[in-house]
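Reviewer 2 asked us to include a model.

Predict the structure of this chain.
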Amino acid sequence: MLKTKRSYLSLLLLGLITQHCQADAIAQRWAQVTHPTQNNIAQSIGTYSSGCISGAVSVPANGIGYQIMRPSRKRSYGHPALRDFILNLGQTAQNQHLGTLLIGDLGQPRGGPTISGHKSHQTGLDVDIWFLLSSHAITHTLTYDERESWAAPSVLIKNTDYLDPRQWSQTHEKILATAASLPEVDRIFVNPSIKKELCWHYNKETWLRKIRPWWHHDDHFHVRLKCPNGNQNCQAQEPLPAGNGCDAGLDWWFTNEAKKPAPNKLLTKPAELPALCETVLRQK
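Predicted model (structure tokens):
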């Protein structure tokens, strides 16, 4: 019986290794592409976690109120709607003296799966923005080395669920409120403790519904845009639940079950990319 169980586990492990190798090989193909397709109209294709984009644009490394981080990753591409969102939010940060936005990953030149890091960010509609916003900390145009070496600080007190007042301020709340109020934004992922803090202060605000708790996200927030008009091959995420999210569903994130989630099934097959994405990948 013990021998049979060991053989079964060996087969499971072999299958898992095979799937990882296959997924990595697919991601390598997308990572090797260095430029977007030359389309007049951008098209996001598939789901946020299994898709691609044609006609993507690159967000400039520097702009009013923002700077792009980690340039070596070459993930500063997205749908024009995402570029416009970043430019708009940066301008707002500048106008309201909220500091400089440090922009993390958008997506690859043609989207698709990445070698490391995100399972989403595949359709050019996702962007990570650091919680390092203080104008006192960022007073110059960052050098390449600074963009590569700076780390995004957590806004939580270490090993707790409490926000660190040295890292968290009303500035962050204003940025999140501004972003979530924009009609093109579908949802914003933050650490559950951040959502809890916002529930205390903004319980009656309609934009709060878009702020969604998710694992980690204590050093950045993840903005996800809606499928743009005319992108018929873009698959929207399920609608947001009713209410503002300041209920028992939020309480769950602070339970042991949430903090130590059960591992995923070993043989979960990665979602297949839409057939159109192969055309996007091969296009000159």
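The CA atoms of residues 54 and 280 lie 6 Å apart. Helices lie at 2-31, 80-95, 144-149, 170-181, 192-201, 248-252, 256-259, 275-282. We have added this to the supplementary material.
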